[in-house]
Design brief:
15 helices, alpha/beta, 13 strands, Rossmann fold, four-stranded parallel β-sheet, globular
Length: 407
């Protein structure tokens, strides 16, 4: 029997898929490539993605010339309201009635997981750029979904290990009370304990909380030395403001497990100096990143977050796949994407793994002292690069049922 290795198998799959597409005349459905974007446009996560994410996608479409091989590209945008039922209903309507080809899900893991399930049912592509729950490539993975930007597991391995190594051994978690927050706390706590640290307590906070006073008192009473903020967006900003007001940052090291550049900008360097954060990308990582970021700044008036950069890259990668395959048929496009690494300003030679995980390196950053800043948006310094294989682990660790059913 002739053995076919993994790479040969992928190549053969692409060739067979292209042949099938040509034979069936698959091409571009309705002569239009329709992309949908559903994210938090007005709530706690809007600054990290929201209208800026939509603009990043428009930039990718414009850079493609607004069309692929003469077939125009349309973009639909809607507010998820951070509600899974709203997000799922919108996704279903767009697939059924708008003839959507690709759905991009933004922030809020529960909303994106709901959209991913609908996309799998409809056999359409789904890419999440802003949602971090590790479930996307584990229990909730599908052959139609890609987790593009980061995961809670990756951030945990980066930040958790580094802070413990720096002496931060006693932790207290302030956790947003839904899927994303729970997974972020669970993944980070596992890393902390593995590295010899302790978790002295935690508190769950409702999404969109404005008053963190009682939660900070619990953190202060715990005796912990690390204040781990397992939240994001406005929740992270408000919780850190409360920590500063209560004087916690004088005795505890704040750790923003999903902090973004915009969060630091909102809070100021005085409040965030010394804070560690792990990111998949940052605006001045290199010249291509800075060039793109300044284009984005000219449109939005602030530097992009990694979620917004991921929105651009995911869209550009999809449109490239459609061009190369000559079709928007989901299975063929996905096969091409998994066989060709992403290589742009956002990620360098990063493969999309069989479970849908984009294997992009992460970077551990630390917020500078205000005196170290050389100008606007110069907020952080690089501590370490975390290779994708370290951040996300081997494929053998994946609990993806789709992969297990194929083995």
């Amino acid at each position: 029997m002739t053995r076919i290795n993994h790479r040969q198998g992928i190549t053969l799959g692409i060739l067979l898929g292209l042949a099938a597409a040509q034979a069936s005349g698959a091409g571009i459905s309705d002569d239009v490539i329709r992309i949908g974007f559903i994210t938090d446009m007005s709530g706690v996560y809007a600054d990290g993605d929201g209208p800026g994410g939509a603009e990043a996608i428009r930039m990718a479409i414009a850079d493609a010339g607004g069309a692929v091989d003469g077939k125009r590209i349309e973009l639909l945008v809607a507010d998820s309201l951070n509600k899974p039922d709203v997000s799922a209903a919108l996704a279903r309507d767009w697939f059924d009635n708008k003839k959507l080809d690709l759905l991009i899900g933004g922030t809020n893991s529960a909303a994106s997981l709901a959209m991913s399930a609908v996309a799998a049912e409809k056999k359409k592509l789904f890419i999440t750029s802003g949602a971090g729950a590790s479930a996307f490539t584990n229990e909730k993975c599908t052959p139609y979904s890609i987790q593009y930007t980061y995961s809670t597991q990756g951030l945990a391995r980066g930040t958790g290990s580094a802070v413990v190594a720096k002496g931060g051994r006693k932790w207290f978690f302030v956790t947003t009370d839904y899927t994303f927050g729970h997974e972020l706390e669970h993944d980070t706590a596992a890393v902390v304990q593995k590295e010899g640290g302790q978790v002295l307590g935690n508190v769950n906070t409702p999404l969109g909380t404005s008053d963190f006073s009682s939660f900070m008192l619990q953190a202060q009473a715990s005796g912990a030395k690390v204040l781990a903020l397992a939240n994001a967006g406005a929740d992270l900003v408000n919780s850190l403001k409360a920590a500063v007001d209560f004087g916690l940052t004088r005795t505890m090291t704040p750790v923003g497990l999903t902090a973004t550049l915009n969060d630091i900008h909102s809070l100021g360097m005085e409040a965030t100096q010394g804070m560690y954060l792990t990111v998949p990308w940052y605006w001045n990582k290199d010249k291509p990143s800075e060039d793109w970021s300044r284009r984005f700044f000219a449109k939005i008036g602030r530097m992009p977050t990694y979620g917004q950069a991921g929105d651009y890259s995911a869209t550009a990668s999809y449109l490239k796949a459609v061009h190369r395959t000559g079709t928007d048929q989901a299975e063929i496009v996905m096969t091409w994407l998994k066989a060709h690494p992403v290589n742009d300003f956002f990620a360098r030679n990063a493969a999309i793994r069989a479970d849908g995980r984009l294997m992009n390196d992460l970077t551990l950053l630390q917020v500078k002292h205000p005196a170290e800043s050389k100008g606007p948006w110069d907020y952080h310094k690089v501590v370490a690069t975390i290779p994708a294989k370290v951040a996300y682990g081997p494929l053998s660790e994946s609990r993806c049922p789709y992969l297990k059913s194929k083995s």
